[in-house]
Structure prediction request, 143 residues.
Amino acid sequence: MISDSQIKELIVAAAAAAEKAYAPYSGYAVGAALMDAEGEIHSGCNVENVSYGLSICAERNAVFQAIAAGERDFVAIAIVASSQIKPLPCGACRQVLTEFCGPEFELYIASSEDPATYERHLLKDLLPHAFGGETCPLPISQC
Prediction:
């Protein structure tokens, strides 16, 4: 488990990322801040497109930013939305997180309207039957 100060730092970084979101269609700006094993934070925001399938969620954006920076070992993510509704990750984001994070990976979910009141979840609880690993008959590189 990460420290209280690290949780606060992640939530602040995720809220700052949400302010940069491009969400003209949904009006639902989301930011994510991913902490790697060295304590570095990699942020991302949702970027919508009029062709909705081409949009990207904040969580995947943060993961892909971290991967592009050469990181592969992550300990926690904070996700903040510009709404009272706390932004649990979609199924695609849960699966991408599973690719790089273990079952005890921590997710901190908050609203920008009340960032001090956050929820803590473990990845294994949000995606208990993830595709890959023991659920895939092929080597993980081929799943």
User: Anything to note?
Assistant: The chain has a mean pLDDT of 92. The helical segments are 4-18, 58-68, 91-100, 123-126. The chain is about 30% helix and 20% strand. The chain has one domain: 4-142.
